[in-house]
Amino acid sequence: MPHFSHQNIQASSTDPITGFFNRAACFNEISQLATQSTSHRRLVVIWIGLDRFKRVNESCGHQGGDLTIFQIASRLRDRTQPDTLWFRMAGDEFVHLALSEDLDQAKKLASSLLDGIGVPLSLNNLTLHPTASLGIAVLEPDEFPHACLERADHAMQSAKRAGGGRIVTSGKEFIPGRLGIRLAHDELQIENKLHVAIDHGKLHLQYQPIVAADGSLISVEALMRCNSDQISPGEFIPIAEKTGLITRLGEWSLLEGATFARRLQSVGQQTSVSINISRAQFAMPHFPQTLHAALLCANVEPQRVELELTESLFMDNSSIVQINLRATKDTGVRISIDDFGTGFSCLATLKDIHASKLKIDRAFVVALPHDRRAFSVVSAIARLGQDLGMLVVAEGVESQEQADALFDAGVQAIQGYLYARPMPEDALLKWIRNRK
Amino acid sequence: MTPHHSALETQLEISLNKIGIPPRPAILETISAEMKKDEPDINHLSVIISADVALAASLISITNSPYFGFRGRVHTAREALMVLGLNVASKAIAGLVMRRAFPSSPHLERFWDSSARIARLSGWLAQRIRNSTLRADDAYTFGLFRDCGIPILISRFPDYPNILKEANQDAVRSFTDIEDLSLPTNHAVIGYVLAQSWWLSEETILAIRRHHDVDTLKSTSIPPSVNSRHMIAVSQLAEYLLQKHSGLSQTQEWSKLGPACLQLLNLNNDGLERVMTEATEVIEIEN
Does the interface ipTM go beyond 0.85? Predict the structure, then answer.
């Protein structure tokens, strides 16, 4: 199959694990290539999705998952021309773009790729038998290139639904869902903006106070914000989670938040800083070392730092999470249970968690003060949390009526716009000063 | 700004200098913002840099270093920016600012000087070694940040100098394995966390974390990328060449990592000899 030079694609578009170009580059590059597609040499998209890849991550950890991805990517590269355009679209999905003389040639290549993926692979004394689902789409005359990409994705999904380990060719009669394309575009734009924000250090933390019934400041929660291109956390955090960037952002916010905790300490504030830690970040084998490193760099007393972990993470029985939970407690930092009440909690496990705070999810707060059943649930959680030695906090409090109902229900502290919005470091220091 | 606020800020600045490493200093933000523009204003940047006399002097001195290969000499921050280009200059400034972010200590001076020499020679080597796609400015930045965890550990753990000595002398176990036996973290992880907070590139960050890991150099089956591996190999080679030149070798790193570095850089004995001869000239010009 003819291949192309990819000198024009920026090095920053490369996925560090596979060396393939990233999703954003794919959307850009396909438009370029489409201009070279003719009736004799047509643009062909091969979309590859690894089957049941989650199981590799679950059994071998994310490092094992990365290793597997790297090896599979090497095999894909070995079976194509050196300058072939490869893209990593998601954790376990790859795209191959080429101009092909006919569909049969593309099918032969897809078949060779499928064979290459299927060679057993050794990992941590286990032998894995990877399989994949492949979707092929050939660009139709006058077709929007992104629609062709979407047809290949759709064909890959069909192969997956049929049990995986097979190749499905997209029929030209399939009309791609325009909404799907637009959503993909929106996500892509946010992802691009996020990459630019990271490259230019345009992210910062804001801090929202958590206040007790008597008005005293208990702690502040660090919340990530992007100060360029108007992307809200509601937009970029899900994308960061989807693309794996969340680990990098989380590691950055750990040192940033810890440094602010030290800053508060140095001006005589007893307040601790809570930092959100994603599951992906917490499940990294080196998480405890990273945490220690951040505490050392910031030179902060560990008890000034609190990690907010979602309740589902505590229920995660994987050995790495359990090891890291113990190691985190050993550092002396505090732990709080975030978004409590909406996840999947096991009460038997809850009794073994030694967290300092329990944060009730905002879903309960919005129902107050009128919903008596919500009030009952909040009262029960508050009692349970306090009996287990935790400070019970409610998030997302916007009105005095909600605050009154929460304190009546036994909640000890609240966080929300009623008291203060998240604010930059200096504004928070001013806010603290003005309250004295 | 109220007097009260000003006093508080001063107090904070003093504390920060004493206690820790500021995540990404403001001057880097300014340069980064300027670089993002279609037409960066070099005059504006040179005014900002020149306001900090020590920073401007260091930048001029770096630009005139033989490692960057410029024949003429620059005399002002503006000329330095023009000659280096904003990309390289911003990395050089990051290194200079980083060094100042640490509490100054006479016994760390030699450490910083040595890091700076390794960084500069790494930048030169990146250009000299043909099979590498590594950019000189990335090799330079990596060299500057590679060991920045060491001063932090020295300042926090009184026993760290002994651990450092043991790690430097051990010809078998990896440097960071020895640190891990006695400490909750190691200098590579600290450097990695710090580099994250300064928003260095993903390749540089991963290379910092794994720069004592021989498996990373040897294996082709795990991340990080080839460029990250080349950063590690080039800086190890730079350190080796400098030690060889000075006749003072206080580490075992080359005996542990050297063969893998040479293989990665595709250098045989003859190739190494040639690089060494050329490097000696550059090292001596700087001395």
Answer: no
Task: Calculate mean pLDDT across residues B252-274.
Answer: 92
Task: State both tokens at A226.
Answer: 């992007």
- Contact: A297, B196; criterion CB under 8 Å: no
More confident residue, A140 or A356: A356
Three-state DSSP state, B123: helix
Q: Do B19 and A252 touch (CB under 8 A)?
A: no
Q: How open is the CA angle B115-B121-B127, to the nearest 5 degrees?
A: 140
Helices (H) and strands (E) in chain A, counts: 16, 16
Domain range holding B95? 23-101
Residue B95 structure tokens: 């290194």
- Is residue A405 scored above 50 in pLDDT? yes
pLDDT tens across A213-262, in order?
Answer: 998 999 999 999 987 667 888 888 888 887 778 888 999 999 999 999 99
Q: Three-class SS of residue A131?
A: coil
**C-beta atoms of B8 and A67 within 8 A:** no
Chain segment A359-379, per-residue pLDDT in tens: 998 888 988 888 999 999 999
Q: Do A290 and B15 touch (CB under 8 A)?
A: no
Residues of chain B with C-beta less than 8 angstroms from the C-beta of A70: 221-223
Shortest distance between the Cα of B155 and any Cα of chain A, in A, equals 10
Are residues B142 and B94 both part of a single domain? no
Q: Do A201 and B198 touch (CB under 8 A)?
A: yes
Whether the ω angle into residue A288 lies within 30 degrees of 0, i.e. cis, is no
Q: How many CA atoms lie within 13 A of A254 on its CB side?
A: 31
CB A27 within 8 A of CB A91: no
Q: Which of B51, B73, B101 is the last residue of a domain?
A: B101
CA distance A339 to A358: 8
Residue B156's pLDDT is 84
The helix/strand/coil state of A57 is helix
Amino acid, single-letter form, for residue A101: E
pLDDT in tens, B65-109: 777 666 667 888 888 888 888 877 888 888 888 877 776 677 777
User: Of the candidates B76, B101, B126, which is a domain's last residue?
Assistant: B101
Evaluate if pTM is beyond 0.80.
Answer: no
Q: Say if A120 falls within a structural domain.
A: yes
Q: CB-CB: which of B194, B199, B221 is closest to A71?
A: B221
* C-alpha–C-alpha distance, residues A424 and A418, integer Å: 17
pLDDT grade, residue B222 (50/70/90)? very low
What is the Cα B92 distance to its own chain's centre?
Answer: 9
Q: Does A359 touch chain B (CB under 8 A)?
A: no
Cα separation, A362 vs A383, whole angstroms: 18
Q: CB contact, 8 Å: A296 with chain B?
A: yes
What 3-state DSSP class applies to A353? coil
3-state secondary structure of A14: strand
Neighbouring C-beta atoms of residue B47, cutoff 10 Å: 12
- What CATH number is given to the structural domain containing A234? 3.20.20.450
Residues 178-207 of B with CB under 8 A from A: 184-186, 189-190, 192-194, 196-199, 201-203, 206
CA distance A295 to A257: 10
Q: Write phi, then psi, for A423 (nearest 5 degrees).
A: -145, 160
Judged by a CB distance cut-off of 8 A, whether residue A67 touches chain B is yes
Closest Cα partner for A312 from A272, A287, A284, A283? Answer: A283
Given a contact cutoff of 8 angstroms between Cβ atoms, the answer to whether B82 and B46 are in contact is no
How far is A211 from A209, CA to CA, in rounded Å? 6
Out of A155, A175, A195, pick the residue that ends a domain: A175
